[in-house]
Structure to design on (275 residues):
């Protein structure tokens, strides 16, 4: 699996990782075992960056990811989690971060993000907590998610010694705004854009035959690939972009990992850029 540098940290991160939103709570053992099988296969294929959040399945995702982590050397995996913006005080944000670590069964996150900008708590307060978590060794790196460029700049300005390494944003072939409008800023400032919902959340499985699908199919034919692989390849063929598709099915995990090998031509990227 190809890796790129996470900002200017020297840390190398896989261009394709694994998302975990959508895991359900209160399911039977088999459901979670199947899910773990897929995550393990992804890890085997180099998708060692696993993205979770306290919000996903109300902690269930972090718990299952924690069971997976316990099977590996901690250093083999890169674990991202996120602070949900419903915690209003410094203490409750700290408490939430510690609870996430407990559910994951780890001493530190590799990357910890503010999940959404909050209307209730200032960015300054959130950044105080994040920088303190770095100082206490609870997270190696910090970032944000769903922040506009303006909010990102504001957040960075409140950090004394720490750089935000990523903004995790909705970006896929049918939602290209951040790729065209925000990515240039992140490239100039050595910040990774982590593209979430790279397959439009539903996997582009039930798309009607329209311009998007026709263009994807045409490019897919050139590479003997599936349209989902082309959608992922389109994202990671952009400089400074990594992504985190979610797949419960092992065959989807395998297909997604292969997308890392697809090199699109300049012309193909241009065609897909204009969808
Ligand atoms: N920061 C945020 O606010 C935020 C928001 C949304 C998502 N995220 C993160 O981003 C991750 C990915 O986004 P997402 O979960 O919204 O959706 P997604 O990755 O865009 O799509 C997931 C869907 O695609 C299907 N799929 C996966 N690989 C496929 C393939 N090769 N061929 C066909 N179908 C395929 C999956 O099916 P199966 O599961 O059946 O295999 C699932 O139905 C999340 O899990 C989460 O970690 C972050």
């Amino acid at each position: 699996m190809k890796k790129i540098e996470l900002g200017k940290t020297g840390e190398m991160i896989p261009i394709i990782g694994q998302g975990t939103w959508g895991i359900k709570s209160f399911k039977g053992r088999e459901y979670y075992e199947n899910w773990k099988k897929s995550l393990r296969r992804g890890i085997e294929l180099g998708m060692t960056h696993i993205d979770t959040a306290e919000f996903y399945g109300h902690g269930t995702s972090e718990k299952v990811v924690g069971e997976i982590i316990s099977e590996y050397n901690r250093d083999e995996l890169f674990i991202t989690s996120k602070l949900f913006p419903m915690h209003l005080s410094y203490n409750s944000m700290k408490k939430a971060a510690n609870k996430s670590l407990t559910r994951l069964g780890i001493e530190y996150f590799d990357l910890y993000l503010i999940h959404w900008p909050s209307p209730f708590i200032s960015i300054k307060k959130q950044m105080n907590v994040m920088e303190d978590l770095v100082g206490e060794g609870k997270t190696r790196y910090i970032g944000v998610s769903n922040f506009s460029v303006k909010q990102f700049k504001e957040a960075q300005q409140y950090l004394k010694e720490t750089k935000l390494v990523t903004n995790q944003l909705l970006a896929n072939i049918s939602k290209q705004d951040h790729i065209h409008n925000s990515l240039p800023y992140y490239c100039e400032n050595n910040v990774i854009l982590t593209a979430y919902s790279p397959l439009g959340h539903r996997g582009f499985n039930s798309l009607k035959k329209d311009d998007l699908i026709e263009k994807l199919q045409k490019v897919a034919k050139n590479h003997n690939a599936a349209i989902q692989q082309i959608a992922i390849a389109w994202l990671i063929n952009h400089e400074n972009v990594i992504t985190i598709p979610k797949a419960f099915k092992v065959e989807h995990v395998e297909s997604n990992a292969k997308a890392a090998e697809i090199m699109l031509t300049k012309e193909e990227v241009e065609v897909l850029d204009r969808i």
